[in-house]
Automatic annotation (TrEMBL):
The keyword Lipid biosynthesis does not apply. Gene3D superfamilies: P-loop containing nucleotide triphosphate hydrolases (3.40.50.300). It comes from Acidisoma cellulosilyticum. One of its GO terms (cellular component) is cytoplasm. One of its GO terms (molecular function) is ATP hydrolysis activity. SUPFAM superfamilies: P-loop containing nucleoside triphosphate hydrolases. Keywords: ATP-binding, Nucleotide-binding. It holds the Pfam family AFG1_ATPase. This is AFG1 family ATPase.
């Protein structure tokens, strides 16, 4: 269980400067991944976008900054003439290889200003920037144009992993922000488990969100990846990371894992600072944190807290994950969020739980999203996952 073993990239030795399709063919030929026709078709679309981006010339900054230029551009979206495609929205079931393909595209892209970011993190940053702008410009009218300018200046290619809309504040900000980004010629590639038409479905205020869905569909090619299987489940699992059920035996295993991962360093409480608040970490040692499930998921913590944990700690020990019922949908939502962040940053997880991941939250609000969590938890139990380096 060595968490500092070097990562062997699946792309190492692959051809460079030729785009994602030759890279995909190479890793298949090398038998590092299984050939999958649906993935191959998706990579062809990514290759086409890659080729287009070689000679990509976004709208001139000057033209869009001038008052008259802006006025002329301000057409209602519905009347926008034969609108330009600004990228690809890759959607599909869990573990189909969406993030892998997007990363191949991103790694091979030669666009100098490009950024790959988890969508949660992007939204948090956007809200923080709006907040800061309002502080600096009291009484200022509209934070969206300067925010879009800044984002477009930083990156003309944005790759979003895990595109999803969870709350109304995101929904409100996104509609205008994306319109402004597309107007500035920003290219977006996104992965998601949800087709655009189902985003934010069943949530209060969804009607106000519909124009954004229209914007997304107009500017992004939606590609459904119907790959053959959840590839996370192909790999053998170890049985020393997920201990069922909680109790003295599991606790002793988690104690031992904590000591091994932290190389017997002294355990102390720590504090993380998250957006002006303090997040207590009851037990921490040498980059490893230990929490009980209620400490992390039964309190009012959010994406920012989980992100801070995921970037700060290379391993997390989590005691006593219970069976979750429909009444526990808030705990389930937080747990989904926690695991998304841990997985995204390759944080190693050792847990005790009332059941295997697939049986933890069978029904209730968000049970569908939990399928991704279960798939991730299965991958997080593999040796291959343990060999990955922590991403801070
Ligand atoms: N063709 C393949 N052969 C073998 N392994 C694969 C293949 N495609 C993907 N994988 C592996 O399966 C795992 C899941 O892939 P990935 O993370 O890209 O899925 P995803 O579609 O983004 O899932 P999610 O919706 O949960 O984010 C990764 O470890 C990836 O390397
Ligand atoms: Mg993914």
């Amino acid at each position: 269980m060595d968490v500092s073993a070097p990562e062997q990239s699946v792309l190492s030795g692959a051809p460079t400067g030729v785009g994602p399709l030759p890279v995909y063919r190479y890793v298949v030929a090398e038998k590092r991944i299984v050939a999958d026709p649906a993935q191959a078709a998706a990579v062809e679309r990514l290759q086409a976008l890659w080729t287009k981006l070689r000679h990509y010339d976004p709208p001139a900054r000057l033209a869009r900054k001038s008052l008259i230029g802006r006025f002329l551009r301000r057409k209602p979206v519905d009347e926008a003439p034969g609108s330009e495609i600004n990228g690809l929205y890759l959607v599909g079931e869990v573990g189909r290889g969406k993030s892998m393909l997007m990363d191949m595209f991103f790694e091979t892209s030669d666009v100098p200003r490009r950024r790959r970011i988890h969508f949660h993190a992007f939204m948090q940053e956007a809200h923080a920037r709006v907040f800061a702008w309002k502080q600096a410009n009291p009484g200022g009218d509209d934070p969206i144009p300067p925010l879009a300018d800044r984002i477009a200046d930083e990156a003309i290619l944005l790759c979003f992993d895990e595109f999803q809309i969870n709350d109304i504040a995101d929904a409100i900000l996104l509609g205008r922000l994306f319109e402004a980004l597309f107007e500035r010629g920003v290219i977006v590639v996104a992965t998601s488990n949800t087709v655009p038409d189902d985003l934010f479905r069943g949530q209060p205020g969804r009607d106000a969100f519909l124009p954004f869905i229209a914007v997304l569909k107009r500017h992004l090619d939606v590609l459904v990846l119907e790959a053959q299987q959840d590839y996370r489940r192909l790999r053998p699992n170890t049985d020393d990371t997920w201990h069922v059920p909680p109790g003295p035996q599991s606790r002793a295993k988690l104690d031992a894992a904590f000591a091994e991962l932290s190389r017997n360093a002294t355990v102390k409480p720590e504090q993380l600072h998250v957006m002006g608040r303090v997040l207590p970490v009851p037990q921490a040692a040498a980059g490893v944190a230990r929490f009980s499930f209620p400490e992390l998921c039964a309190r009012n913590l959010g994406a920012g807290d989980y992100l801070a944990i995921a970037t700060h700690f290379q391993a997390v020990i989590l005691d006593d994950i219970p069976l979750l019922t429909p009444d526990n949908h808030n705990e389930a939502r937080r747990f989904i969020n926690l695991i998304d962040n841990l997985y995204d940053h390759r944080v190693k997880l050792i847990a005790s739980a009332a059941a295997m991941p697939d049986q933890l939250y069978p029904t209730g609000d968000g049970a569908k999203a939990f399928e991704r969590t279960a798939s991730r938890l299965m991958e997080m139990r593999t040796e291959a996952y343990f060999a990955l380096a922590h991403l801070t």
